[in-house]
UniProtKB/TrEMBL annotation:
<dbReference type="InterPro" id="IPR050600">
    <property type="entry name" value="SETD3_SETD6_MTase"/>
</dbReference>
<dbReference type="InterPro" id="IPR015353">
    <property type="entry name" value="Rubisco_LSMT_subst-bd"/>
</dbReference>
<feature type="domain" description="Rubisco LSMT substrate-binding">
    <location>
        <begin position="292"/>
        <end position="375"/>
    </location>
</feature>
<protein>
    <recommendedName>
        <fullName>Rubisco LSMT substrate-binding domain-containing protein</fullName>
    </recommendedName>
</protein>
<dbReference type="GO" id="GO:0016279">
    <property type="term" value="F:protein-lysine N-methyltransferase activity"/>
</dbReference>
<dbReference type="InterPro" id="IPR046341">
    <property type="entry name" value="SET_dom_sf"/>
</dbReference>
<dbReference type="Pfam" id="PF09273">
    <property type="entry name" value="Rubis-subs-bind"/>
</dbReference>
């Protein structure tokens, strides 16, 4: 039932930096010496890698051995995959670097307060890689001091550990970096807006469920701490991490966990996946600079919801913009309260918003239809036993040739089944195209 305990993980099973240091005085001594220069996340990554280095002697060996060997968070994307967040790779080609150099078309028009949203995605990906590399360089002296094996000192390994921490940690009050929670980190994600319990229930069961929810709420009110569950669980007074059912589940149904409210770009950045239908997605479009300064709202509050509705801030800004200049002050209170001024004003708002959407779409290098066909092609390749045939039968031969050239792969030497490293890159390429398509 909704609200029922699904999993309880005792604190002793949680992998945290303080627990690792408590079990290993040498690690504790070295980490404490470097503590002022390292963030809590860097310390947890070092502790994680220290346990990995112990092999079977680590108390978390069984847990560590089942962790993924690779991730698809934005920071793992190479240049080719990052560029795919924005452009159709066949359209912007310059034969200078590794045979081809990938270019993306940035918005150079004046008078707009937003770059394209796709530009933001490329910037986020590049910034993430740069930040992680900097953190690795800062932590390397500590890892050398701990006599890490050469493989554990590599940036590639640090990136894997960072992705593990980014995509799998759960929140705990005593450590900003969170904890790695065995079993608890296996739950797949469900957006908070999709959670609730409107499944078909008979009257008697609905009454019991309602009574239980009231009791749970009363128990939470009794708690003296600010630990009212905003997601689907947390670390509780019982000295354990507890996870609860977000809705009523039937036999055989997958139990999902709400990590929080994220846009698709944020999901890709932190967790390495995205949702085809994300109720928390935000779409930004080009807006006149005058419109952005209409009110006091921050720029990131001016967006369009997945259902096409403008955000409250964007709608108010547009209503104010569509009001004659000499009447804006007298109508501002009504506008800021969210009220519609008139049918004429509302029609002008929607007309303006619609034209801006069309303008944005027309300046993007690809269409949703083209991206959809490319996604289908990339999925087929990942499951193909004869990729040459799939490429020949598709209209994406040029893009795939670019892909092979980027990875320095000689087509003549490639077997019928693509190498693992190319399959993983295809997976990330598909994610990039899926994001830009959405």
């Amino acid at each position: 039932r909704r609200g029922e305990l699904v999993l309880r993980v005792p604190r002793a099973a949680l992998l945290t930096s303080d627990r690792v240091m408590a079990d290993d005085p040498r690690i504790a001594s070295c980490v404490d010496a470097h503590r002022p220069r390292l963030s809590s996340i860097q310390r947890l990554i070092v502790c994680l890698l220290a346990e990995v280095g112990k092999g079977k002697s680590s108390g978390w060996y069984l847990y560590l051995s089942q962790l993924p060997t690779y991730y698809t968070i934005l920071a793992t994307f190479n240049d080719f995959e990052i560029e795919a967040l924005q452009v159709w790779l066949g359209r912007f080609v310059n034969r200078t670097v590794f045979g081809y150099r990938l270019l993306h078309a940035r918005n150079t028009l004046n008078g707009f307060c937003f770059d394209y949203q796709v530009d933001d995605a490329i910037w986020v990906a590049q910034k993430a890689v740069s930040a992680i590399r900097s953190e690795w360089e800062e932590a390397t002296p500590l890892m050398r001091e701990l006599d890490f094996k050469p493989k554990l000192l590599m940036f590639k390994t640090w990136l894997w550990a960072f992705a593990t921490v980014s995509s799998r940690t759960l929140h705990v009050a005593w450590d900003d970096a969170g904890c790695l929670c065995p079993i608890g980190d296996l739950f797949n994600y469900a957006a908070p807006d999709n959670d609730t319990s409107s499944e078909e229930q008979d009257t008697e069961e609905a009454m019991k469920c309602q009574e239980r929810n009231v009791n749970v709420m009363l128990e939470e009110i009794k708690l003296d701490s600010p630990s009212v569950r905003l997601t689907d669980g947390g670390y509780e007074d019982s000295k354990a991490y507890c996870l609860y059912a977000r809705k009523r589940y039937r036999k055989g149904e997958q139990v999902l966990l709400g990590y929080g409210t994220y846009t698709n770009l944020e999901l890709l950045e932190h967790y390495g996946f995205l949702l085809d239908e994300n109720p928390n997605e935000k779409t930004y479009i080009q807006l006149d600079s005058e419109l952005c300064t209409m009110g006091t709202w921050p720029k990131d509050s001016l967006y369009i919801h997945p259902n096409g509705h403008p955000s409250f801030a964007l709608l108010c800004s547009l209503r104010l913009w569509a009001t004659p200049t000499n009447r804006r002050k007298s109508f501002s209170h009504q506008i800021y309260s969210g009220s519609m001024l008139s049918v004429e004003n509302e029609l002008e708002v929607l007309k303006r918003l619609g034209s801006k959407c069309v303008e944005t779409l027309q300046q993007l290098p690809t269409t949703a239809e083209l991206d959809g066909r490319l996604i289908h092609f990339l999925r087929n390749l990942q499951n193909s036993t004869s990729w040459r045939v799939d490429v020949e039968q598709s209209s994406f031969g040029q893009e795939f040739a670019l892909f092979l050239r980027f990875h320095s792969v000689d087509v003549d030497c490639t077997q019928d089944q693509l190498p693992v490293r190319l399959l993983r890159s295809l997976e990330r390429w598909e994610l990039a195209v899926r994001w830009r398509c959405s």
